[in-house]
Structures are given as structure tokens and as C-alpha cells.
Amino acid sequence: MVKFAVIVFPGTNCDFETERAIKKAGAEAERVWYKTSLKDFDGVVLPGGFSYADYLRAGAIAARQEIMEEVKEFAEEGRPVLGICNGFQILTEAGLLPGALRPNRVPRFLCRWVHLRVNDTETPFTSLYEPGEVIRMPIAHAEGNYYIDDPSKVRIVFQYSDENGDVSEEANPNGSVLNIAAIANERGNVLGTMPHPERASDRFLGSEDGLRLFRSMVELARR
Amino acid sequence: MKWRVTVTVRLKEGLNDPEGRVIGKALRNLGYAVEGLRVPKCFEFELESENPEEEVEEICRKLLANPLIHSWEYRIEPVS
Asked: How far apart are CA A180 and CA A40, in angstroms?
């Protein structure tokens, strides 16, 4: 069975839910303290939370820990690397994904459900979605305002939209360029998402739309 | 040799600064005609180095600033 590492930094707090969602998607998952090694894993997930209390910039300190060298090797080898929320911030700070996540345009922490339009179903994380499909997941962040100088450099995976899939300014919660909520690297094996798929992985949570992301990831890691 | 270093990191011009906007607005509410408030970050430290300029530049690029969104400047003085 394929096995995913869920990396835990000081201040990570979405690791249990993420582990549970990966297991529900049919793989093994283990929470791994950042000072240990990633040997014997098929993929890596950087879960949400507030690593190092968001000091300096969210994700900045975690991105410079030694374990990230191993995560870079995973990325280079084409194995799946998923960053959720603070994990996405860590991936941009580590240079594994382009761009930066800046403080929200509105001066507050945003914690609510959003609609997302699926823009790219060719990544190992989104193969079980339909192109243009509208899904629901929660966001919970203060620094989710995605910035990139040249948006043509990124593979846009999810965009904030209304319930009809209209990617409008009104549907943009945080000021992200082009309503960007999730991106992938060129190869598609590194994905960063501000919305939390693990919080939408059970119908009792209000949506199972996020579970398909983990299922896609697990399915492709098996091959 | 030991140096005292002061680094200031700023958001590049044109990028909005939500924290600065909120603080500026609070000052206007207090009756001051404040405009264009921005919140740079300042770092102070001592550094043992033979090439302080080069190392401080590296320190800014590698961690204190994000070159995509920030500019920076520094002052380096010998510790007497």
C-alpha cells in the first residue's frame, strides 16, 4: 500500500484531519515530526496550521528546515507533494511553487466555505474532477492573497468562484491574482491549495469534494 | 570582525499593505491627516564576518525578505 508522510512542524495543527483523509482515500499515512526522515514514503503532505507562529512570513521558517531538502528531492523525482494552507505557504517560501501568499486584502482572518472552479484536471491531484466543475471547501487563513508578477508562469488548479462557477471579483475572498486558490508546478506533482480538502472529506463535515483530491493523489501514487 | 547590522525590509511599491492601510485609517480616525502609511520590518543584529556586505545581502535574499515582493536596505557599522 502506498504511504504518505504528513509533516508536522512546531505549530502545525491540521495533521490529524489530513492523516485521516489520506487513510479514507485508501492509503497509509503517518504523521512525521520535521526532525525525522522521509525514507520509505511515496508522497509528502504539508498540512495546515501556524508553523513557527507565522513569524516573519507564514511558512518562511518551516521552508528553511532541513527536511525541506528531502521534500525537494520528492518533487524532483516526480512523487506527489501536497501543501495545504500553511503547507502551500511553505512550498512557495521554499521555492517549490512560484509566487507568494500575502496578507488578505481584507484585514481579517477568513474562515468560511467557498466555491471553487476546477481549472486543471490534468494534475495527479485533480484527475477525479471534471473540468470546470464547481466544488465546495473551507478556507481558514490570514495570508492567502496569492501574488505572482506573471500569472502565465503558473498552472492554475482551483479558482475562487460563485456557485455557478463564475470567477468574479465578488467571489474573490482575499485579493488573490486571478482568484487563484490552488496552483501546481509545471510537471503537476507539486500542488499548493489554500482551501482545506481535508475539511471537506466527509459528508458530516458538509462536503466530500476534498476527498476526491486525496483519492486522485493516492491513485496516481500507486502507479 | 564584529558588526552591528540594521536591515529594513519593505513591500515593493504598488503592492498593497493591508496592515498599513488599517493603521493609517485608525490614525485618521484620531484626527491626524495621515496618508500612505506602510509598515516596513526592521531587523537588528550583530554579525561576526569578514565580508559583512556580502553576507547581509545573502541574509536578506535567503530569509529576511522575499525578493518577489520586497525591497531592502541595510546599515552596517563596526561594533566598538
From this structure: 33
Using a CB-CB cut-off of 8 Å, the residues of chain A touching B70 are none
With a threshold of 0.85, tell me whether the complex ipTM lies above it.
yes
Residue B35 has pLDDT above 80, yes or no: yes
The three three-digit cell numbers of residue B42, written as one number: 526592521
* pLDDT reported for residue A101: 98
Q: Is A3 on the interface with B (CB under 8 A)?
A: no
Closest CA to A75 of A223, A153, A190, A213: A190
Distance from CA of A21 to the nearest CA of B (A): 33
pLDDT of residue A111 exceeding 80, the answer is yes
Beta-carbon contacts of residue B15 (< 8 Å; ≥ 6 apart): A102, A147, B69
Of A57, A64, A103, which has the smallest distance from its Cβ to B66's Cβ?
A: A57
User: E strands of chain A, at which residues?
Assistant: 3-8, 28-33, 43-46, 81-84, 100-102, 110-118, 134-141, 145-147, 155-161, 180-184, 190-193
CA distance linking residue A195 with residue B77, whole number of Å: 46
Distance from the Cα of A87 to chain B's closest Cα (Å) equals 17
Q: Taking the model in full, what pTM does it have?
A: 0.96
Q: What is the rounded distance in angstroms from the CA atom of residue A87 to the CA atom of residue A183?
A: 12
Distance CA A210, CA A196 (A): 7
C-alpha–C-alpha distance, residues A80 and B58, integer Å? 31
